[in-house]
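I hope you will forgive my troubling you with a question about protein structure. Here, with my thanks, is the record as I have it:
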Amino acid sequence: MTELRQTPFHDLHVSLGAKMTGFAGWDMPVAFAGTIEEHLHTRSAASLFDVAHMAIVALPSGSAEPLERLVPSDIVGLGLGRSRYTALTTESGGILDDCIVTNHGDHLGLVVNASRRDVVLPHLRTHLGDDSFF
């Protein structure tokens, strides 16, 4: 069995009493206090989600137009500092993964699910080119 990877927040999760479980090769918190208590806390205050296990890709700002051909969303018109939740599509129009695209001005940030990174990254390289990542 392969050892699970840990995010930078792993020790914090454990110290806060998180129930940890394996997810896409990572040791991730699945619960802290229980579903109802966590739901009520999120609705009355706020909750955070550790995205350190997800695939975070930086694309040059010039890749907005080609990326827009892979998602059913306006990426070219995405304002500076703004993010858009969208879906990365296959050649036949199916959904490969959901993702978040952020316009950082000098580049685009793309966040995709950890469990899909082995499919998404080659798909992006095929359609955007190997030199589009940095």
About this structure: The beta strands are 19-23, 26-31, 55-60, 83-89, 95-103, 107-112. The mean pLDDT is 92. DSSP finds four helices and six strands in the chain. The radius of gyration is 17 Å.
